[in-house]
Write a structure and sequence with these properties.
It contains eleven helices and 26 strands. With 549 residues, the chain is α/β, with parallel strands linked by helices. The radius of gyration is 28 Å and the shape is elongated.
Length: 549
Amino acid sequence: MLTSLSISNVFCRRTGAIVAAVALVTGLSAGIAPTAVAAEPDPASATVPYEEVPAPSAPVIGGYLLQGTPNFSTIDMSVVTDFQWAFSTITDPALGDAGGRCTTASQAGIDAVLAQRAKQPDLRVIRSIGGWGARYFSQVARTPESREKFVSSCMDAFITNGVADGFDLDWEFPTAGGMPDIGYDANDRENMNLLVNEFRKQLDAYADANGLNRRDFWMTAALPAGRWQDSGNGVTGAPYDVLKSFDLDFLGKALDSINIMTYEMGTGYVPVSMPNQPLYADPKDTTGDPYNSGDAMIRLFIDQGVAPNKITWGAMFTGGRGFVVGDTTNGGMWQPWTATGCGSGTNAVNWANAQRDDRSVLVYWDDTTKNQWFFDPVQKRVCSAESPQTLALRAQYAKDMGLNGFFSWQLNSTSGSNNAELRSVARVFYPQLVHEPAAPTVTGTPVAVANGVEFNGEVARVTGSSASALTAVINWGDLTRSTATVVPLGNGQFSVRGQHTYAKAGNYTATVATIDPAYINSVTANTQVTVGAVSAQAKCVGSKVHLAV
């Protein structure tokens, strides 16, 4: 009777298999019928992950750079844990042996990443594959042979040379919703699962062969939150359901993290102007879609079986989304549009114009969706873009929900803000890494005034400020604006004051935008204004106005 067996001769990929092998040895030694060895995971199963991956142990602060040779010099990398390097694409499968492969990076790009890794040994580098309009995912995911060939080429290009720690799949999108020429197949949803399994199989094999920890090699995917995507003609939009493209329950188990693109919601595919990254749903939303917000999509993913700590919230740092509308109602939001784009209005330009008396740009704040936007009532152009304040609110939401941190498109913001967007997010998760004091609180002061009578008084109070001086602008809610007078009160408090005469009676929402010398601490808030007609008996006593409303 066989009484011993060398464990080293038993190939065991997973811990469960090792336990089974030990049971086999014990059983044979005791003359007991052996327990079967656990089967090798099957990468060809579209319903069972090759490996169920545990959730990350700490939240990430990461982001993409769409640069062949990444320029890290302008980014505060001290607060970045994960770098998504975009993009590799897929060579045309029609090219024979050269087709269906992962495109490589330039040597200059590889050298730049390796140099950053030498400075920052704990930085996790993920090579992102795909992007909007990227072709041939459907073809390479279709058969075992094409999957193995494609993944092997990615491993050769980015893992064996030590430049990356894994891959991010940005397939936009399986089955429908992407550009019409990317290629589709009825089995794309299942084939996405199989492609993830093949990546995990080869990453595990590489780790095992080199005596490395499997958890050091990551697989992620960038999945959409936008509910309106391409209709199939490359121009117009149509309602889109992420569940028809992706098996969220499977991916939640098989991936280290899912990067939800909780941005690009207010694109040219939507029928009305809307914020690009609404945190919460807006009752004024006329699209009729109950999932048209970041919060709703996060909850949908969780309902589909994705653990919260495997979800990474996404936000756009660079630029914004805009529309030209025909109606000035709601500051241009939730209106039919005639053209898209912010024009030349970047965040920096819009902020500058909003503070100039010879410009017509207004700042708006929605306390429901937690969005700031700019609106030019002359051009009727609305531009939705993020600020350190809005990003910090989204980061706090992600932290409160137990999500796996925060990622950005892209790490290099366009606001000229000295990394204020990135640091505002990091300050929520890792406050010890960010040295600016906490942002102040701005509270609107309710206003009551008669139409035709000049108001001159406080519209907001600032508390907890670390600045010695502030500036502010006021959008009075009637398509006019003015520069505020900001009076220091001591102990971090300021009174924001303004002068204005309303022509018509009614209820207005005025927006007060405070500009801190440290942009990371600039805060926008609303105040309610009641404007009433002066009755025949109305009289003014000091600064008080008796109103008939």
